[in-house]
Amino acid sequence: MLQQARIMTLSPGGTLLDEKGQPVTPPPGWAFLPSGDAGVTRKVTSAGPFWRVQVKMGKRNISKGVWAPAESIEQARKMMEAVRQDDSYRKKTESAKRRREKIQAEYVDDFEKKVIQFLHFHPRYEQEALKMARLICDHATPVGSGTVARTTRIPIDERASRAVIAWMRHQTTAYDQMQIARIKGERRRVRQTLAQKSVCLLEAYRKGDTLKQDCPLLRALNISK
């Protein structure tokens, strides 16, 4: 008898692996339902046995979809299609969407203010602070971006400061081109070293110092439109 629910993973080559890391093949009559339609997925996973396929991305497990009886998937799709054609469902969905968009807009506004507060640039560089905050928010605040700005485990002030340092790591240093040794703790050490350099770079803007023409932050801001 099949277990109600199992968690599978994918090998680098795309082979389906079971909980023990052994290759497995879905039962006859099963089909794959990619992630993306939560309503259909919920109905499929509540109807009977299924295999959820996950991949590791950083410290998170990301669902790629589920394997389940093809009949269950087809029935779930038809049920959700009927539900979504109902006027009350559409109104409820539109209302929920507007509410999410309002919450997101408010969060982006709050986050941008926190970024500007952390930057604390001299009035001489007010425009640079505004542009930098906008660029960081555009990158870090979208829902599903997986950045530190989207976590709720730390205060928003800390999220903002970490987002600034992360953005600078990629925009003002050679981090993306570095060949970092596969030694435990080495990547963390490199990031800490680059973070210290970023903080020193920010100090020039906070003090209102005259910038050098080859300032990496100024160059990054000029490149980004």
Question: Can you offer a commentary on this structure?
Answer:
With 225 residues, the protein is an alpha+beta fold. It has helices at 38-47, 70-84, 87-119, 126-140, 156-171, 186-207, 216-223, and strands at 5-10, 16-17, 30-34, 50-57, 60-69. The chain is built from 7 helices and 5 strands, in the order βββαββαααααα. It has a 5-stranded mixed sheet with strand order 2-1-4-5-3.
Question: How would you sum up this structure in a few lines?
Answer:
It contains seven helices and five strands. By secondary structure, the protein is α+β, with helices and mostly antiparallel strands.
Essential attributes:
225 residues; 5 strands; 53% helix
Give the secondary structure arrangement, pairings included.
Elements: E1 5-10, E2 16-17, E3 30-34, H1 38-47, E4 50-57, E5 60-69, H2 70-84, H3 87-119, H4 126-140, H5 156-171, H6 186-207, H7 216-223
Parallel strand pairs: 1-4
Antiparallel strand pairs: 1-2, 3-5, 4-5
Helix pairs in contact: 1-2, 3-4, 3-5, 5-6
Mean pLDDT: 92
Strand order, largest beta sheet: 2-1-4-5-3
Q: Give the SSE order as H and E letters.
A: EEEHEEHHHHHH
Weakly predicted, low-confidence segments: none
Overall structural class, as computed from helix and strand content, comes to alpha+beta
The tally of strands reads 5
Helix content: 40-55%
Which of globular, elongated, flat, extended, rod-shaped describes the shape? flat
Radius of gyration: 24 Å
Estimated share of beta-strand residues: 5-15%
Q: Tell me the span between the first and last alpha carbons.
A: 59 Å
What composes the largest sheet? 5 strands, mixed
Question: Treating each run of at least 4 consecutive H or I residues as one helix, how many helices?
Answer: 7
